Each structure stands twice: as C-alpha cells, then as structure tokens.
Amino acid sequence: MExxxxxxxxxxxxxxxxxxxxxxRKEECMRFYIGERVPPTTTRWMSVLPHALKDGHCDHFxxxxxxxxxxxFGNIFANVQQKDLKAMxxxxxxxxxxxxxxxxxxxxxxxxxxxQQQAIKALFEAHGYDGNIAYNEExxxxxxxxxxxx
Length: 150
Description:
By secondary structure, this protein is α+β, with helices and mostly antiparallel strands. The protein contains four helices and five strands, in the order αβββααβαβ. It is elongated, with a radius of gyration of 20 Å. The protein starts with 29 loop residues before the first helix and ends in an 8-residue tail after the last strand.
C-alpha cells in the first residue's frame, strides 16, 4: 500500500495507533498503517504500548478495512416519471436518514456508504429504472470497528 498521510479528523480520537515495527502482522494492521501515516503536524495521539505485543500476538490488532463511498450527486430523479417521483424521493430520503440529511449527502457534505448505495440502486431497479446512479466522486474511507480500544 502506498504511504499517504492520513487526515486525523477522519480517525476517532479514541483510536490508538501503533508504531511496533517488530510486529509480525504490522502490514495487515490498521493501527500500524495509520500510525505510519500520521501527518507531521499531529504531535499527540493515543498509541498501543510496546508490551501489548506478546509472543507475536497483539490483542489490539485491527484488520485494515476500507470501503468505497460516494460523495455528492446531481439530479438522480431526472429520468423518473412523475407517477413514481414522490414515492421514490421519499424512499431515497429515508435511506439517507431524512430530508435535511438528504441535502447533506447530495451536496457532498456526508459520504454515501456502500449499504446506502445498494439500497438506492435496488430502489431504482425495483421501479424499473437504471440503478447506476451518477455520483460526483468516489472516495476510499477507513471503517473503524465499533470497539475502538481493542
């Protein structure tokens, strides 16, 4: 994987990173991956301590997990017939967590995750339309486990 810097605003503040270069699983660990890419402007962050590594095993290991999210979209209803429009708009707004959030997603302020993309595609296809939505931008994002400390 290429060594790009990480925007630490995307990393939960309670997510410890790792610098244990002697770890046998470092190449597949998200904590090490992020630890190596912390920008030089970040001078303080929580980290995994060296004694966490015991006999080549670390309880804090976290597999690198990325997904392809989408940012923003134009008028996805341009080809939708009037008879389907209101119902489909309501369904898309429900998928995107409500009316005001719909506009945040549309304007690219929030990322549309794969599950949401699939639900929107399925909705369009269920109504007989092309499910290939033209999103503005494709973005790879890290998925952090809900148990941040382990």
